Amino acid sequence: MFIDKSKIFVKSGDGGNGCVSFRREKYVPLGGPDGGDGGKGGSVIFEVDPGLTTLLDFKYKKKFVAEAGGKGEGSKCYGKDGDDLHIKVPMGTIVRDFESNKIIADLSHKDDVFVIATGGKGGKGNCKFCTPTRQAPNFAEPGMPGEERWLTLELKLLADVGLVGFPNVGKSTFLSTVTAAKPKIANYHFTTLKPNLGVVKAEGMNAFVMADIPGIIEGAAEGVGLGLEFLRHIERTRLLIHVVDISGIEGRDPFDDFVKINEELKKYSVKLWDRPQIVVANKADMLYDEEVYEDFKKKVNELGFNMVYKMSAATKLGVEEIIKEAGRMLTEIPIKDLEISDEERFIPEEKRFTYEINVEDGEDDNKVYVIEGSFVDRLLNAVNIHDAHSLKYFHKVLRNKGIFDELREMGIEDGDIVRLNDFEFEYIL
């Protein structure tokens, strides 16, 4: 089964919490803090596996979560780092952020590795908060949360040459003739329902990969038929072989077909439309009038396409000549990575702990200043509100964060209440 698009969820491991611990030994009655740090959470890493050719594995497994870091322990023992989660993907995989549809990574080389979600940092143990004036801190730092997001994986086949043209013009027959590929071949429309790849080998030239891309018909760039499903597979190709049915046995005009396919390529991507093309007039063995080919060639030449060949994939007429020309052209066309514009590229937001302050009416004409947000959650997890030294640290963090300055700018007065989640205290200047 050929699967070339999938939606998955990834989450890196949370960092382990720091430990609150004090040294307790028989002859050391006043042992100091010895809580160790938490371990780092595991990261989620994409790795290219050249042996994979489809995203089939992601049809059955959609959720990937890395291991969390271990908690810190006493005696200054650090928590174990979580194991990284390595996910194998085929070459040519595009990783997109699902919400914005922007590209995060293009994994198009054999050894490509990309960290898609970094593991959370481990929290500090209480021994790290020991100072000359705070010798017995009764609090530790929680681990940082891991990153998580929904992703869209897209597979864009890595082929040197792409076969394009209307259905039933002989692309699959041509592919089976010049490669060892065995595509399904029959005399009806949309015989090919998935891209087929084959390696072309000929004496005196380098081997190259050819792909038969199905589903391109009039309206394909707008999603008609299978167009949008497969147009992306020719984005990476360096050369297009455009196959038309010159016999006209189905009542279609070959030049009109040629123009319509190129219009669809242009609508989808100007760069794709501007790619070098070899134009192949197939089914020449069934041609009833030689002037039909000559007229077709003249019109195509007038559009600026000079490489026009007559071929019969069934009898192999002209096949060798076309393959040699394709091999020659590929030696002159450089290999380029997929170009990603700034508008298409995903830029991750800086991980910050934020807060907001809202004012509510309290009792006795006092105001209640409610502070909410991820910063509040993390701070309250880090302190022990029942310990004097921990509360002193708590107020220091609020002061350094600028929250007290902001409260004063908002007009807070003596006796007003400051509330952080379920914890509140009276403000005193």
From TrEMBL:
The keyword Protein transport does not apply. Its EC number is 3.6.5.-. Keywords: Cytoplasm, GTP-binding, Hydrolase, Magnesium, Metal-binding, Nucleotide-binding. It is found in: Cytoplasm. Signal peptide: none annotated. It is an enzyme of class 3 (hydrolase). It comes from the Bacteria. Gene3D superfamilies: GTP-binding protein OBG, C-terminal domain, GTP1/OBG domain, P-loop containing nucleotide triphosphate hydrolases. Residues 159-331 form the OBG-type G domain. GO terms for cellular component: cytoplasm. Mg(2+) binds at S172, T192. Its main location: cytoplasm. GO terms for biological process: ribosome biogenesis. One of its GO terms (molecular function) is GTP binding. InterPro entries: G_OBG, GTP-bd, GTP-bd_Obg/CgtA, GTP-bd_prot_GTP1/OBG_C_sf, GTP1-OBG_CS, GTP1_OBG_dom, GTP1_OBG_dom_sf, OBG_GTPase. Residues 1-158 form the Obg domain. Residues 345-429 form the OCT domain. Its cofactor is Mg(2+). An essential GTPase which binds GTP, GDP and possibly (p)ppGpp with moderate affinity, with high nucleotide exchange rates and a fairly low GTP hydrolysis rate. Plays a role in control of the cell cycle, stress response, ribosome biogenesis and in those bacteria that undergo differentiation, in morphogenesis control. Belongs to the TRAFAC class OBG-HflX-like GTPase superfamily. OBG GTPase family. Monomer. This is GTPase Obg. The lineage of its organism: Bacteria, Bacillati, Bacillota, Clostridia, Eubacteriales.
